[in-house]
Amino acid sequence: MKLLAGATGFNPPPGAPADLKTFTAVCYHAARSIDATVTGVMPAGVAPNFHTVAIAHAQHHIAVLRHTTLPFIAFARPHADGDVMVTFVDHPDLAAALTNLTDAEALTAEQLQISLSQVDLSALSPHEHDQVNYWKPTTVGELLFNFWD
Fold first, then answer.
1. Is the bond preceding residue 48 a cis peptide, omega within 30 degrees?
2. C-alpha span between 53 and 20 (Å, rounded)
């Protein structure tokens, strides 16, 4: 796996960042298609570097994360305010619904747990490498979906 410039959220390459309004609309549509409900929206900021849409499906709650720079979506257990740990999960039905509506790739929990020692980081900018050295993420998920400031 090779991570592209902007993966950390620092010094993103030129281009439009992920639009929260569009992402939210896609999540509402995908949720309806699987009989789920959107229960909240949290925009990215300085930290975190990803948008979050909370969805309730049956008795389960899931957070849909959208990286602001790269076209990646991930699924996680909801986390409380102030919690900076992300626990990635899989939701195949929601992943299928979302990828039918957008060009973003839904990453699996397994992909997000890949060790950074097995990943090509050569496309990251020098500033991003500085951030990786400072924050010391150990997995793809920790690097892509972070609360660094």
1. yes
2. 9
Tell me if the pTM is above 0.90: yes
Residue 81 in this model has a pLDDT that exceeds 90: no
Cα–Cα distance for residue pair 103/23, rounded to 1 Å: 11
Catalogue the E-assigned strands of the chain.
37-42, 50-57, 60-67, 72-76, 88-89, 105-106
- Residue 102: both structure tokens together: 């957008």
Two tokens at 107? Answer: 């990453």
User: What number of helices (H) and strands (E) belong to the chain?
Assistant: 5, 6
The two beta strands, 105-106 and 72-76, are parallel
Give the residue from 107, 29, 40 showing the smallest Cα distance to 71. 107
Average pLDDT (105-132) is 96
Q: Are 15 and 118 in contact (CB under 8 A)?
A: no
Return the residue matching tokens 């439009």: 16
Q: 92-99 and 20-33 helices cross at what angle (nearest 10)?
A: 120
Compute the residue count for the chain: 149
